[in-house]
Amino acid sequence: MTGNMNKLKRFRPGQNIIILFALVLLVGVFTGLNPNFVDRYNIVSMAQSLAPYAIMSLGVTFVIATGGIDLSIGTVCIAAAVVAGKLYTSGLVPLWATVPVMIGIGILFGFINGLLVAKLKLPSFIATLGTMMFSRGLSALIVADPNIFFPTGTWYNKVFSNYNGIPTGILWVVGFTLICSYIMYKNRTGRYILSIGSNEEATRLSGINTDRYKLYAYILAGMGSGIAAIFWSASFTTVAAATGNGMELDAIAGVYIGGTSAAGGVASVTGSVIGAALLVVIRSGLNFVLARFDLSLNSTYVTYVLTGIIVVAAVLADVLKSRRRRK
C-alpha cells in the first residue's frame, strides 16, 4: 500500500503545461482579434469572475478525486450568499459575520452530501442532485426576496474583490491553491482520498476508514462553495435568490480540463485553477470577438458549445491514457 501511496502523490505536470500553453494561446488569439480584450478593466473583470469559480473547482477536485461528483456546489454557493446577505440586510449580523456564516452553510451542505454518499451509500450523482435542488429552493423560501444586495465600496469589496484596480480575489486563489495542494499531496487526508479514487476496496481492506475520508472530501467541496460565495457577493453585489444552476458545471468542467481523472485516483489542484481560468477567458474573449465583428450570435451559447467539446476531449484523453497504462 505504501508504494501505491507514493504513486498517488504524483500528479501530471505535463498536463498543466499543455493547458497553460492553451490559455496563453487563447489570450493571444483573442487579443489579435480584438485588442480591447487585454484592456485593464477587462483583465480585472475576468479576475473577479475567476475567483469564485476557481475556489469551487479547488473544493470539488477532492470529490472528483474519489471518483464521485458534487452537483450542488453552484446552488450552495448562491444559497450561502443569499442567506448571509439576508441576515446582514436585516441587521441581524454585521458585515464581517457574513463570512463565517457563508463558510458554515457550505460546510453544512458538504457534510450532508458526505453522509448521503459515504454513510447511506447513495450514488453521488443522485445525492448531490437532490441537495442541489434542496439548497436552491430552501434559500428562496428562507429569504423570500428576489434579490439580496451586498454593500459596495467597503472593506469587504476591497479585501475579497478589487482594491484600487488590483484584483485581490486572485491573491486569495493563489493562497487557497497552495493550501489545497498541501492537503492533496502532502497530507494523509489527500493521499487517502486519492487512494479511494484509485481503488476503494483495496484502501478499505488496508485498514483505512474510507467512509470518513469520503465525508472529508465532500466537506471540503462544501467549504469551497461557502468560500466562493464570499468572493461572488463581493464582486457581484446583487445576488439573485434561487439561482446557481450551471455554476457547478463550469467549476466541474475546469477540474476535468485541468487533468483530474473523472474515474478518480489522479488529481491536479493547480490544473483545476488553470482549467477554470481557461473557461473564463473563453467566455470573455467570445464576447469581444462577437462584438468586434458584429456577429449576431449569443456568446453564452457559443461558450457552451466550446466548453462541451473541450470537456469531452479532456475526459476522452484521460480514458485513452488509462487504457494505455493498463496495457
Q: How does this model look, in words?
A:
This protein is mainly α and 327 residues long. The chain has one domain (36-319): Orthogonal Bundle (ABC transporter involved in vitamin B12 uptake, BtuC). The chain has helices at 2-8, 13-33, 40-65, 73-89, 98-119, 124-143, 155-160, 168-185, 188-198, 200-205, 210-235, 247-257, 269-292, 299-326; strands at residues 147-149, 238-240. The longest helix has 28 residues, at 299-326. The protein is globular. The protein starts with a helix and ends with a helix. Residues 1-10 have low confidence and may be disordered.
Topology:
Blueprint: H1 2-8, H2 13-33, H3 40-65, H4 73-89, H5 98-119, H6 124-143, E1 147-149, H7 155-160, H8 168-185, H9 188-198, H10 200-205, H11 210-235, E2 238-240, H12 247-257, H13 269-292, H14 299-326
Antiparallel strand pairs: 1-2
Share of helix, binned: over 70%
Order of helices and strands: HHHHHHEHHHHHEHHH
Mean pLDDT: 91
Across the major sheet, the strand order is: 1-2
Predict the CATH topology. ABC transporter involved in vitamin B12 uptake, BtuC
Per the principal axes of the C-alpha atoms, what is the gross shape? globular
Rg, rounded, reads 20 Å
Task: Say how many strands there are.
Answer: 2
Distance between the termini: 21 Å
Q: Which consecutive residue ranges, at least 5 long each, have pLDDT under 50?
A: 1-10
Keywords:
327 residues, mainly alpha, ABC transporter involved in vitamin B12 uptake, BtuC, two-stranded antiparallel ribbon, 74% helix, globular, disordered N terminus
